[in-house]
Amino acid sequence: MNLIDALVAIAALLALTVAVGVYLRWRQSQPHRHIAHEIVEPHRLGADKLGEVATLLQFSTELCARCPGVHRTLSAIADDHEGVRHLDVDLTHRPDIARHFHVLQTPTTLLLDRNGVVQTRFGGVPSREVLELELTRLTTETANA
């Protein structure tokens, strides 16, 4: 193998690696709706109650650089919608909760309905627009039920 062939092979491998990384990052930020539904009990998370309409449940850690930005976004969305509550659970000292909810990265956000049933899961930093759409979908389904 000559030098040119080696450089082409390295460039192709690098391009493939970048493409896979971009795809995986995009896929993480997409909402996942086909998840095993369970009812989240607020007292287990250290909260007194859930939102009357929906709850934005954020899992974060002390060392998460992106978590404060997601916290601000989720708090703003909750403030803009009556009956929506934002709960932020720090997993740094709660590995039991991280294991139970299969949290492998922070931030991870769960959208819960008014009964505490997990409706949507976001890994990484979800966009505000997608969060708003999912919240609208949930409230519309609840109103039509």
* Helix run count: 4
Structural class: alpha+beta
Say which CATH homologous superfamily is assigned: Glutaredoxin
Q: Structurally, how many domains make up the residues?
A: 1
Helix-strand sequence: HEHEHEEH
Please estimate the helix content.
Answer: 40-55%
- The CATH architecture name reads 3-Layer(aba) Sandwich
Low-pLDDT runs:
none
Mean pLDDT across residues: 85
And the CATH topology?
Glutaredoxin
Termini distance? Answer: 66 Å
**What kind of sheet is the major sheet?**
4 strands, mixed
Which CATH class applies here?
Answer: Alpha Beta
Strand order of the largest sheet: 2-1-3-4
Task: Report the sheet-strand fraction.
Answer: 15-25%
Count of strand segments: 4
Question: How would you summarize what this structure contains?
Answer:
The chain is 43% helix and 18% strand. With 145 residues, the chain is of the alpha+beta class.
SSE layout:
Elements: H1 3-28, E1 54-60, H2 67-80, E2 84-90, H3 95-100, E3 108-113, E4 118-123, H4 128-144
Parallel strand pairs: 1-2
Antiparallel strand pairs: 1-3, 3-4
Keywords:
145 residues; Glutaredoxin; four-stranded mixed sheet; alpha+beta
Please explain how this structure is put together.
This protein has 145 residues and is α+β, with helices and mostly antiparallel strands. It has one domain (31-144): Glutaredoxin (3-Layer(aba) Sandwich). The protein is built from four helices and four strands. The chain has helices at 3-28, 67-80, 95-100, 128-144; strands spanning 54-60, 84-90, 108-113, 118-123. The chain has a four-stranded mixed β-sheet, covered by helices on one side. The N and C termini lie far apart (66 Å).
